[in-house]
Write a structure and sequence with these properties.
This protein is an alpha/beta fold and 268 residues long. Helices cover 23% and strands 20% of the residues. The strands form 3 sheets. Strands 1-2-13-12-3-6-8-7-9 form a 9-stranded mixed sheet. It has a two-stranded antiparallel ribbon with strand order 4-5. It is globular, with a radius of gyration of 18 Å. The protein binds S-adenosylmethionine.
């Protein structure tokens, strides 16, 4: 296991089953997990789709995927994680935050689809604590309106709006508004990449004083980039241990993290 190491971040190019035995019980403050949903997303046709039309609030039609490069077909999303995955994650981290939790019987019993936007308030009433509805603000397209994040933390469930739909990405200052300068958009290198800014917001709110984080399948490395940003820009004190079994993704994320200047400059 030859890891990528940079300051407070260590990422292994390995299957998480090989890493779990090396990790101590309650070693991490928060496991931020985005496991395979078992819906074969790594091979879905939409990854090569270039004609997705989004209807904006003002009625304009946009095609956010016009210039998209296709991703390679991969098998990693064919199956949901095993009981062993959950048992080990609950052992090594004091708390968890799981994307797509609604797909996993270990967390919700019977799996269910995420709510549509008009069902958000009912969902919040029925799930009053520990849930975050990530509203992707994707206008009128066919994809899910949100992703559900379930946590073991004790807070009032809420909706977090952050635009994430092809080239329509939220701006850093206000994630509900589209970034006008597309050069500032995050480059996508993974089919289920989460926005770095989203991870920054989650960490700043739910792990305010810094702490140890674990990710059992880090994909594009957005979480690592968020940790780098918060540590470098705001002198936060996060440490991250993570792994990614696909060597293609691992190489891309290393390139992404190494290519980042240490101090971001802010243009006024
Ligand atoms: C849903 S994606 C994570 C996306 C990530 N949150 C991001 O922002 O890019 C799940 C990732 O877990 C990886 N993965 C799946 N099974 C794994 C395993 N057993 N060990 C390590 N990584 C695994 C997949 O290759 C995939 O990149």
């Amino acid at each position: 296991m030859n890891p990528f190491v940079s300051e407070n971040i260590t990422i292994y190019n390995t299957d998480n089953t090989k890493l779990f035995p090396l990790l101590k019980t309650k070693q991490f403050d928060l496991g931020i997990l985005d496991p395979p949903y078992g819906i074969g997303v790594g091979k879905m046709a939409y990854l090569k789709e270039k004609n997705t039309v989004v209807v904006q609030k003002n009625g304009n039609k946009l095609n956010p995927n016009r210039n998209k490069k296709g991703y390679k077909n991969k098998d990693w999303d064919n199956e949901i994680p095993t009981y062993h995955y959950w048992r080990e994650n609950f052992r090594i981290s004091k708390n968890y935050m799981v994307f797509g939790a609604n797909y996993f019987p270990e967390l919700v019993g019977k799996p269910f689809l995420p709510p549509k936007r008009h069902q958000f308030s009912t969902f919040l009433l029925e799930h009053p604590t520990g849930w975050i509805i990530w509203d992707k603000m994707n206008g009128g397209n066919d994809f899910n309106d949100c992703e559900l994040i379930k946590t073991s933390l004790n807070f009032k469930s809420y909706v977090l709006q952050y635009m994430w739909c092809g080239m329509m990405q939220g701006s850093r200052l206000d994630g509900t508004k589209q970034e006008g300068n597309k050069k500032l958009n995050e480059k996508r290198i993974h089919p289920t990449q989460k926005p770095t800014r989203l991870y920054e917001l989650l960490l700043a709110k739910h792990l305010q004083n810094g702490g140890g984080i674990f990710d059992a399948g880090i994909g594009s490395g957005s979480l690592a980039e968020a940790v780098q940003n918060l540590n470098n820009l705001f002198h936060a004190q996060y440490t991250l241990v993570a792994c990614e079994k696909e060597t293609d993704y691992f190489n891309l994320l290393v390139k992404r993290l190494q290519g980042k200047p240490k101090q971001l400059s802010i243009k006024i």
